Amino acid sequence: MENKNATTIVVLSGDMDKVFAAFTIAAASAAAGMDTTLFFTFWGVKAIQKGTLTGKGFMARMLGIINRGGINRLGPSKFNFGGIGRWMFKKMMAQKGVVPLEELRQSCIDLGVHFLACKTSMDVMEIRREDLIDEVEDVVGAAKMMKDAANSSVHFFI
Amino acid sequence: MDIKVDVTQDSIGQMCPMPIVQLAKNMRKMQPGQVLEVRADDEGAHADIPAWCEQTGNEFLGEEGIDGYVKYYVRKRA
Description:
The structure holds two protein chains of two kinds.
Chain A: E1 6-11, H1 16-31, E2 35-40, H2 58-66, H3 84-95, H4 101-110, E3 114-118, H5 119-125, E4 138-140, H6 142-150, E5 154-157
Parallel strand pairs in A: 1-2, 1-5, 2-3, 3-4
Chain B: E1 7-11, H1 18-29, E2 35-40, H2 45-56, E3 59-66, E4 69-75
Parallel strand pairs in B: 1-2
Antiparallel strand pairs in B: 2-4, 3-4
């Protein structure tokens, strides 16, 4: 049960820059042989959505349109300017040889990083399991995340 | 540097964390005692590769600066 060579990362943010940090840390952690878990909650769920339209009720459907999920729809936390900032950052990062966010997420998957999604966030925003990428291992509550966090030596909240 | 290299990794043009991601992937496929040569021009690799070795218990054999990039040598632990 005790596994101190582990990292847990709570990803609350759905901003490109912050999700980038989360996946970078997760990749480095898994590369170092640590058991690594990412727990996506609230805006962070965007990063593991397929990009399909979500929501059944009126308000959830509106949210699903203005806050549509999918890794390539994440914008920077500053200077997004309705998508121009996102385009600019992607271009600048590509010029410097920085890997695209989706590829970085794939590297995490390849290295065996565990992806968990927050049940409450999904209920509130009416996001279904099938709206998430297949690599998400489970949809869980805070207790599961706490158990993993308690058994890890490194914990981040992003 | 006179080191017998078993596997070569080209990370030229890659930035953090990809050289380390590839390093970890390559090392998983290698046999204990084999040597990996990582070619990288990201200056972060200078600190990252020895740190990765220290954390994972693999042996950092050294580095060699070539024109425009650096060769790092890592031996998989027995």
